[in-house]
Design goal:
Blueprint lengths: L4 E2 L1 H4 L6 H12 L7 E4 L2 H6 L2 H9 L3 H9 L5 H14 L6 E6 L16 E5 L4 H11 L3 H9 L10 E6 L5 E6 L10 E8 L3 H4 L6 E6 L4 E5 L5 E5 L7 E5 L12 H18 L3 E7 L3 E8 L13 E5 L13 H21 L4 H6 L1 H5 L2 E4 L2 E5 H8 L5 H12 L7 H11 L3 H36 L12 H14 L5 H24 L7 H6 L9 H14 L2 H9 L2 H7 L4 H14 L19 H24 L6 H16 L4 H48 L14 H9 L7 H16 L7 E5 L21 E3 L1 E4 L2 E8 L12 E5 L13 E6 L7 H9 L3 E3 L4 H4 L5 E5 L4 E5 L5
Parallel strand pairs: 20-21, 21-22, 22-23
Antiparallel strand pairs: 1-2, 2-5, 3-4, 3-5, 6-7, 6-12, 7-8, 8-9, 10-11, 12-13, 14-16, 14-17, 15-16, 18-25, 19-23, 20-24, 24-25
Length: 892
């Protein structure tokens, strides 16, 4: 080939050919039907510049100035001769050609430059050089510069190459998309066609016939533009135009036959397969089907596929344990626990082992990590529940326990229910197995819990040698020992949770049906105040600490204002307070805000929040002591009165129903026991997480000492198995320093990114094209009243204090605590609260259970609560009915 002229073989790999020509050359080499052509390389423009013109290009990026310079550029004579020779070889009989732009970044994966540069059709061979000059000029217009600036591209463009193709006389032409660029459906090809040249369609001068073709090559939709009416001049009409019907024999037929449509769809998909991504093609049919252009559909990057697999994400009560951004180490550990535990639960409920094995991916995907935040992969929870008989009843109980407020779409619910059916005989066998499993677990659950506590105490005994003296391989071995002895045998907590869900759901059903309680809140009064819930113990211990501090003004002042070192120096002079404080840390030192997140600092790491909370409550107690003479004798709390009233109400409702009374009391007794044990076992989970936290932080220190990690806490940005694999010698990436740094940067972005909605749907690949928002945003609520789930009885009126972090809040003055969510670490501030209002949560969430035990009125699951109220607003709340009213603050 002559200088500046590139044939197909040269253009396919040449940067001088530009994006459009390079793509077509590669398509032709792959066997796709491309018109005969050649390329005038981009260097032809540079070689046509005079010295003065070259200097002008180097000194300005102003569009008008560049256009004036290009206007003066003439195709250099040697280049003109080479061009004429190439055109004669392409069109030996003087056929017309198309002269088309092919800029360096045109038709790329990031930017298409669609419609930005000029192309010319039906060009005579003698006019090719002139059209080349016009194509060059179109590459330097103000429009092009604005496009480049708007897309963050270098301002000064490279000159475009020029593609010269032999023209065909098509009977039909148009565009096709191998995926639907409007809906995002990857399995649908869109074919648009007009009679004759496709330039009328591309320019928007005419409407096109359009077909949608599925992956099975079936036409699933036709949009035919039948010109059955036309406008004709009519001076006698009001607007001078009259619409007439066109005779049917003159109506233009569709531009393509069905066979043509399928052939074009096949071509679009062939181009997509060759280029490895969905393509937007231009095509024409003359004596054969031709591919005129192929470029990526850039808009699909920001679009999910609506035909992709549906996932529903909901963080309901999991936000109580994992609020905010969660590190990869914590997520991978939690994911592993959920997988093991719920497989184990299904085995205990009699689900066949082959069924569990077949659902392996479901169990692996009970949780998801969306912008660094944990969510339930909700449909998998329903699918797991559908493995057991009684899906429809158990589904409602599960929703109550998890705090899920929205029902599944009917079609999704029906699909899960249908998939759960195994045929009458198999269902009967499965039901018998499950009933047997339930009965066995019901009668052994208390012994199972006792054995679990014993096993836990043995596994979490003080390690010898201590963790801080162990080698990395010894730390890994200790983790695996814990996993084998506890995580793979987490039977008691999960079975107890299931029975708590069942019995609490049954109790709520019975009070609604038998005790005339349509609101379904009476069961909260009945199960509260029974004692024995260890999660309430920190509040009792906190009150003892506060009581000791209240009698010592110097200590009280230090607890409220001193730093940690000053308080530590003062502790030896207050031995009774110190003994109570150390006893608290020994038992509850791992209980902190976000205690299940391995990155969280515990009270062992930073005890100051505990000391501050004791000081704030101590001030309140000191104030109460000063005012005791004016308050009169103590009276039963409203919670005590409501519990007694609830018992009387049940007794009256069942007075003449002895069988119902026996059944009701049996359900109530088991509901109380299971709810109590559920909350107590959560503390044991905290102990296990505390040990795992220390193991991995020690591993982080070892890896830092070996210069594998930049910082010891960078271990938090690795997955559990990545750490274990590095020690074992099976790591697929040994550059943990770079891997952790990459993840740390990514998760810092998540910290600054608005959190996804509490519930949303995704289709297909989760991290592509989704905003993680509800399909329809909830309309903002107005007015001065809200309703949530009443979970701890009592009516209070007072100012609200909105709390994001209980470790930093000042509760020196009592107020109604308002939070988006809580976790067990909030127990330190509960005793200081008049009442508790929580935006998230369920009737069995930690806030609900502990508030009931402490007799603090509480309402959970109040949508938009923290946006509705502001610090200092006054409210009246009813913890029995769940109603909240914003009221006027009383005068001082």
């Amino acid at each position: 080939m002559m200088p500046w002229i590139l044939d197909v073989r040269d253009a396919a790999g040449s940067a001088d050919a530009g994006g459009k020509a390079r793509a077509l050359a590669r398509a032709e080499r792959a066997g796709l039907p491309v018109p005969s052509s050649f390329v005038l390389s981009a260097s032809a423009f540079d070689d046509s510049l005079t010295a003065e013109q070259r200097a002008s290009f180097e000194q300005t990026n102003d569009g008008r100035a560049l256009a004036r310079t290009v206007d003066a550029v003439a195709v250099a004579e040697p280049i003109r001769q080479a061009l004429e020779t190439a055109v004669r070889a392409l069109c030996p009989n003087g056929e017309l050609v198309a002269v088309r732009s092919s800029a360096s970044d045109e038709d790329g994966t990031q930017h298409s430059f669609a419609g930005q540069l000029e192309s010319y059709l039906n060009v005579a061979p003698t006019d090719v050089a002139d059209r080349v000059r016009l194509v060059w000029r179109s590459g330097f217009t103000e429009r092009i510069l604005a496009y480049r600036r708007g897309h963050g591209l270098p301002v000064l463009p490279r000159p475009p190459a020029v593609l010269i193709q032999r023209m065909a006389a098509p009977r039909a032409a148009g565009v096709a998309f191998s995926a639907d660029p409007v809906s995002g459906r990857r399995g649908v090809t869109v074919v648009s066609a007009v009679h004759g040249l496709g330039s009328l369609l591309v320019s928007g001068e005419t409407d096109a016939d359009t077909w949608l073709v599925d992956r099975g090559r079936n036409i699933i939709e036709r949009r035919i533009v039948a010109k059955r009416r036309m406008h004709v001049a009519d001076p006698g009409s009001i607007d001078g135009v009259r619409v007439i019907d066109v005779p049917s024999d003159l109506v233009e037929p569709p531009a393509l036959s069905d066979a043509d449509v399928v052939a074009v769809a096949d071509l679009a998909r062939s181009a997509a397969r060759h280029f490895g991504r969905p393509q937007d093609i231009e095509w024409a049919i003359a004596d054969r089907l031709l591919l005129l252009q192929s470029r990526p559909i850039t808009s699909l990057r920001a679009m999910p596929d609506p035909d992709g697999r549906l996932a529903i994400w909901d963080n309901s009560n999991i936000v109580e344990s994992y609020s905010g951004v969660t590190t990869p180490l914590t997520f991978s550990f939690a994911q592993e626990i959920y997988e093991y535990v719920y497989q184990q639960f299904c085995r205990m409920m009699g689900v066949p082992e082959r069924t569990i094995a077949a659902q392996h991916e479901m169990f692996r995907n009970m949780l998801g990590l969306i912008r660094g935040r944990l969510y339930y992969n909700l449909l998998n929870w329903y699918r797991m529940l559908a493995l057991l008989p009684g899906y429809r009843v158990n589904r409602r109980f599960m929703e109550q326990m998890m705090g899920v407020k929205e029902r599944l779409p009917d079609d999704v619910d029906a699909e899960i229910s249908t998939a759960a059916r195994r045929g009458r005989t198999l269902d009967a066998i499965h039901l018998a197995r499950t009933i047997a499993g339930l009965a066995a677990n019901h009668f052994t659950i208390n012994r199972r819990i006792d054995r679990f506590y014993h096993r836990l105490d043995e596994a979490l005994a003080v390690p010898s040698p201590p963790l801080d003296e162990r080698r990395p391989d010894e730390l890994v071995a200790h983790y695996r020992d814990l996993r084998g002895r506890l995580l793979l045998s987490w039977d008691a907590p999960i079975v107890n949770d299931f029975f708590a869900m069942i019995y609490y759901g049954l109790l709520r059903h019975l009070v609604t049906r038998w005790c005339d309680d349509p609101a379904g809140t009476l069961q909260n009064d009945l199960i509260s105040g029974e004692g024995g819930i260890v999660s309430a113990e920190p509040a009792v211990r906190m009150q003892r600490l506060a009581g000791l501090a209240a009698g010592d003004p110097a200590l009280l002042e230090l607890l409220n204002t001193g730093d940690a070192d000053a308080i530590a120096d003062a502790l030896p002079r207050v031995p009774e307070f110190t003994a109570e404080y150390r006893a608290y840390l020994e038992k509850f030192g791992d209980r902190t805000v976000n205690e299940l997140k391995l990155e969280s600092a515990t009270l062992h790491d930073d005890p100051l929040p505990l000391l501050r909370a004791a000081g704030a409550l101590g001030r309140q107690l000191a104030q109460v002591d000063r005012e005791a003479s004016s308050t009169g004798p103590a009276v039963p709390s409203s919670g005590d009165r409501l519990r007694a009233a609830a018992r009387r109400r049940v007794a009256e409702a069942l007075a003449h129903r002895p069988l119902r009374r026996v059944a009701f009391n049996w359900v109530l007794r088991h509901a109380r026991r299971r709810v109590r044990d559920r909350e107590n076992l959560r503390l044991e989970r905290t102990r296990l997480f505390g040990r795992v936290r220390r193991i991995f932080l020690e591993l982080g220190r070892r890896l830092h000492a070996l210069d594998v990690l930049e910082d010891p806490r960078d271990v938090l940005y690795l997955a559990v198995d990545e750490v274990l694999a590095f020690v074992d010698g099976r790591a697929t990436c040994t550059d943990l320093r770079s891997l952790a740094a990459l993840r740390r940067r990514e998760f810092r972005v998540y910290e600054d990114t608005p959190a996804p909605d509490d519930r949303f749907e995704t289709r297909g690949p989760v991290y592509v094209g989704h905003a993680f928002r509800r399909a329809q945003a909830a309309a903002p609520e107005t007015g001065d009243a809200r309703t949530g789930l009443g979970c701890s009885p009592g009516i209070v009126r007072g100012p609200v204090r909105i709390v994001a972090d209980p470790r930093t809040v000042d509760l020196a003055r009592r107020a109604v605590l308002v939070a988006e969510h809580t976790d067990p670490g909030w127990i330190m501030v509960f005793p200081s609260a008049l009442g508790v209002l929580v935006e998230r949560g369920s009737l069995l969430s930690h806030a609900a259970i502990v508030a009931r035990e402490l007799g603090i009125p509480a309402v959970v699951s109040v949508p938009g609560l923290t946006r509705w109220l502001r610090d200092g607003d006054w409210v009246e709340m009813d913890g029995a009915t769940g109603t909240i009213r914003r009221v006027t603050a009383p005068d001082a």
